[in-house]
Amino acid sequence: MTADQLKEIISAGLPCEHLALEGDGRHWFATIVSASFEGQRLVQRQRLVYATLGNRMATDEVHALSMKTFTPAEWANQA
Fold this sequence. Notes:
By secondary structure, the protein is an alpha+beta fold. The chain has a single domain, classed as GMP Synthetase, Chain A, domain 3 (2-Layer Sandwich), CATH 3.30.300. It is built from three helices and three strands. It has a three-stranded mixed β-sheet. Strand 1 (about 20-25) and strand 2 (about 25-35) form a beta hairpin. Helix 1 (about 5-15) crosses helix 2. The longest helix is centred in the middle third of the chain and has 12 residues, at about 40-55. The protein is globular, with a radius of gyration of 12 Å. About 15% of the residues are buried. The mean pLDDT is about 95. This is BolA family protein. Pfam families: BolA.
């Protein structure tokens, strides 16, 4: 899977203000900014992202995905 394909899958299931991916085709690191994360704990945010992948983790299409998740306000404070 390419970074563009993975970005398309995540952004189709989760409205993202910012989505950056790095990886080697199996192991990925994502930085995701979404208003959908408002009021959500870290685990809940990760579940939202994993839900966009459907069974792709189980079938090893995406072997590993590490992520940092931010609300737009949290992202604005990163600078």
